[in-house]
Design goal:
- With about 290 residues, the chain is an alpha+beta fold.
- It has 12 helices and 8 strands.
- Strand 2 and strand 3 (about 125-130) form a beta hairpin.
- The protein has one domain.
- An 8-stranded antiparallel sheet has the order 1-2-3-7-6-5-4-8, with helices on both faces.
C-alpha cells in the first residue's frame, strides 16, 4: 500500500557559522517573531486599527494570507478533542465564513465529514484529517495529541513518530511563518510518500495533510532540512546527548545535522579530556603525610 520515493530534499547550504552562532541566529529569529506577533495580537485586542494596518503592511500580510492563517488555526482547533464544542474553533469558523447575507469571501464553505475537514476556497479545496484518526495507536505514544498540551515539542515528537511508523519517512525541519514573514519559528514535522503522493504528519497539531497544502498553510520557508528514519535511529545516542547538553544544541541537529555532528564530536573530546584529567589527578599519591623512616 505504501511506497517511498527519494524526494529532492532542499538542504541548508554548508554553513560557515559556528554551532553557537547558528543557535544565536535561531534565537534571534524566534524572539523577533514573538515580538512582532505579540504586537499584532495586542493591536487586535485593543482594536487599534492604525497599529494593525501598520503591522499588516510591515508583515506583508494580504487579505488572502490572513484567511490562510485563519484556516491554519481552524485545522489546529479541529484536530483537538470535542472540537465542535471548542469556542475558538467556532469563532474562527465564523470569521472565515462571515455573514451569510454578504457575498462570500476567499473561503466558500467549510464541511466536516467524519474525521475529515474540507475547506473550499477560491483557490481550491483544502482537505485534512487527524493523525489520531489514521493511526489510532498514536494516542498511546502521545496521550496529549488531541489536547492543548501537545505544543512545544515538535522536534522530539516528530523523531518519536518517525521511529514508530512502519513506513520509510523523514523528519523535516524549517522555518514556518503562517501569519507573516515577521513571525517565523523553527519547526519539525514528518513526511512520507503514500501511493505516489507526498504527505505531512505534524504531531504537535495532530494534522495529516498533503505536503503542498501544508507548506502553503504554514508558510514553510526554504531551506528545509530532512533526516531519514534510519539516520535518526542510528543517531539516537547523539540526539539524546545534545538535548541533555542544551535544548538548542538538539535543535541544531534537526536543522543542520553535519554541524551538530561536529559539535557533538567536540563535546565528546572535551568530556574525554576532562575524564582523563580526573583520572590523572586521582592517581597522584600525596606523600607529604608519610611518616619518616
Amino acid at each position: 500500500m505504501f511506497s517511498f520515493i527519494n524526494l529532492p530534499a532542499v538542504r541548508i547550504k554548508k554553513s560557515k557559522l559556528t554551532h553557537n552562532e547558528l543557535i544565536n541566529l535561531f534565537e534571534t529569529k524566534e524572539n523577533e517573531g514573538k515580538k512582532w506577533e505579540t504586537s499584532f495580537f495586542n493591536a487586535l485586542y485593543n482594536e487599534d486599527m492604525d497599529r494593525i494596518n501598520m503591522l499588516l503592511k510591515e508583515g506583508g500580510i494580504t487579505n488572502k494570507s490572513l484567511a490562510m492563517y485563519y484556516i491554519d488555526l481552524l485545522l489546529a482547533y479541529f484536530t483537538e478533542k470535542d472540537y465542535d464544542n471548542n469556542i475558538n474553533y467556532l469563532l474562527v469558523r465564523k470569521i472565515l465564513l462571515g455573514d451569510k447575507e454578504e457575498k462570500k469571501g476567499f473561503v466558500q464553505s467549510i464541511d466536516v465529514d467524519g474525521e475529515i475537514i474540507k475547506v473550499e476556497t477560491k483557490d481550491g479545496l483544502i482537505s485534512a484529517t487527524k493523525i489520531s484518526a489514521i493511526y489510532p495507536n498514536v494516542k498511546k505514544l502521545f496521550p496529549e495529541i488531541e489536547g492543548k498540551n501537545r505544543y512545544g515539542y515538535c522536534h522530539d515528537f516528530s523523531k518519536r513518530l518517525a521511529k514508530n511508523l512502519n513506513v520509510p519517512c523523514r523528519v523535516a525541519t524549517g522555518y514556518v511563518a503562517p501569519l507573516s514573514r515577521k513571525a517565523q519559528c523553527l519547526h519539525s514535522w514528518v513526511e512520507y510518500n503514500r501511493e505516489g503522493e507526498n504527505w505531512v504528519l505534524d504531531v504537535t497539531r495532530n494534522l495529516f495533510i498533503k505536503r503542498d497544502l501544508y507548506y502553503k498553510l504554514r508558510g514553510v520557508k526554504y531551506p528545509v532540512y530532512k533526516i531519514s528514519k534510519e539516520t535518526l535511529m542510528a543517531d539516537t545516542e547523539m540526539i539524546s546527548y545534545l538535548f541533555d547538553h542544551e535544548v538548542w544544541s538538539g535543535k541544531v541537529y534537526f536543522a543542520n545535522r553535519p554541524l551538530a555532528i561536529r559539535w557533538y564530536n567536540h563535546l565528546m573530546r572535551e568530556e574525554k579530556r576532562r575524564n582523563k584529567e580526573v583520572e590523572s589527578s586521582s592517581s597522584i599519591v600525596d606523600h607529604s603525610q608519610e611518616p619518616e623512616k
